[in-house]
Amino acid sequence: MDGNGRWAESRGLPRAAGHRNGVEAARGIIRCAPDLGIGTLTLYAFSADNWQRPETEVRALMWLLREYLRTATPECVENGVRLRVIGRRDRLPITLMAGIEKAEEATAAGRKLQLRVAIDYAAREAIVRAARALAGESDITRERFAAALGAVTHGGGPAPDLDLLVRSGGERRLSDFLLWEAAYAELWFSDVLWPDFKPSHLAEAVRWYHHRERRFGRVPAATTRPAAGA
Ligand code: IPE
Ligand code: MG
Q: What is the Cα 27 distance to its own chain's centre?
């Protein structure tokens, strides 16, 4: 979710106003996700590197996240949305930490949409934590690594593969988001600034996704011949 600051600045508003409108855009996207066939949606709300922003902006973001969790929880419960936060928690304000626990607990029965909000998240940090959890083991395979990453990041189960990664705001980079999980993700970059990002923009990305031929290293289906000896 990128472009909140530029959206505000272009209107002569403080950056926090961009973040406030960004939250509203996120609400719209969360509501439409199940209808677009999305079962798991991860929103990158605050990266570990975002701590380097001015203190006033960080404080505004922490307050907004807390408010979002508080106000969105009833709607999540009603719509079958299970909310989970990924990322470090030990550096967050105590009120936000408590808010996360409350929201996760209240929405635990949700089955329609797995909503993950990444707060103080960095993919390389998550990978290092998974590596640490496996330290000393002799047989480290991809499967075991994915299991360790799933345990430290996603609350259990193997780290899920990401199908489609959408970045708004015009930049063409991943910025330390779900690097392991995105190994075969289709990448969609939109120039729309996040506060202007509507369900129709996500629908466009999903339509594009459905036309991608996902080969995972194989040749196109039409040219498949049995391998020698098969
Ligand atoms: C939102 O957009 C991303 C967050 C960290 C909340 P930005 O705040 O990065 O907006 P720009 O890139 O300055 O426009
Ligand atoms: Mg940005």
A: 14
